Structures are given as structure tokens and as C-alpha cells.
Amino acid sequence: MIIEKEGKLCNCGNFGCFEKYASMKAFKDEFRKEFKLDENTSGKDIINIIRKEKIENPSNYKKIERLIKNYTEDLAIGMSNLINIFEPEAIGIGGSFIYFEDIFLNELKKRIQDGKLFNPRKEVIIEMATLENDAGIIGATI
Q1: pTM here?
Q2: Other CB atoms within 10 A of residue 29 CB
Q3: Which domains occur in the chain, in start order?
Q4: Which of 124, 56, 68 is nearest to 97 (CA)?
């Protein structure tokens, strides 16, 4: 799904794909680039940096807020496209997003539920997947 006309080149060969903007990999890569971190900086390290900067360095946290805003906006656009097509009652989000729940989820909900991105109707429930980041592993064993 393309969410950015003439956007970044995706691995699939198209430009502006949802995954290129709204995957956790995309956020982590953008964070590493913005803060000049080594590409091996883990997601856990990034979470710790975000939480620490919010408390200890509010002026630096402004850059982080911008990254969070951009990421949640792109994620909300893609999810709203899916909401418009499938009209689900609820959406479960899993994968490594679950580790960033306190950082992204409220902002994401606000962007989706403000009604600007999809056809107005009842509120969509957005929750974290109960299997967290283990769904693939558990599914493979069944």
C-alpha cells in the first residue's frame, strides 16, 4: 500500500510504501539516523534513550517528539486506509510495537480516532495483541 506519493524506495521496488514509513524497522532506522547511532543499536536501547531523554533532556526530546509524530502519522494513514476498506470493529497491534506501547499507542489512537483519516462511524478499538511479539513463534508450533 502506497502512503507517500513519490516517497522512499521500498525493497519491493515501489516508492512510498506503508512498510517503508510505518514499520518499527523504519522508526528505529530513522531514530538511529537522527541521533547518529550505530546501526546495531537495539530497539531496547532506543526505548531507554527515549524514556531517559524525556526526563533528563526535555529540549532534546523535541526531536524525539517529531519522530514519534511523523511515525504515528504515517502508521495512522496506512491503518486508516485498511479501516476504510475492511471496516473492522477492532485492530490488534503486535510485533515489536508492543515494546513501544507507552510511547506510540495513545498518539496513534488519537490520530486515527479524530475522524480525519477515515469515513466517520463508530470508534475503532485499537489494542495490543495478547501474544505480544511471540505470535509467530507460537503459531509455528501449532
Answers
A1: 0.88
A2: 13
A3: 21-141 (3.30.420.40)
A4: 68
Output the pLDDT for position 112.
87
Q: What is the DSSP string of 83-116?
A: HHHH--SEEEE-GGGGGGHHHHHHHHHHHHHTSS
Q: At residue 60, what is the residue type?
A: N
pLDDT tens-digit map of 51-108: 999 999 988 899 999 999 999 999 999 999 998 899 898 999 988 899 999 999 999 9
* CA dihedral (60, 65, 68, 74) positive or negative: negative
- The Cα–Cα gap between 142 and 140 comes to 6
DSSP 127: E
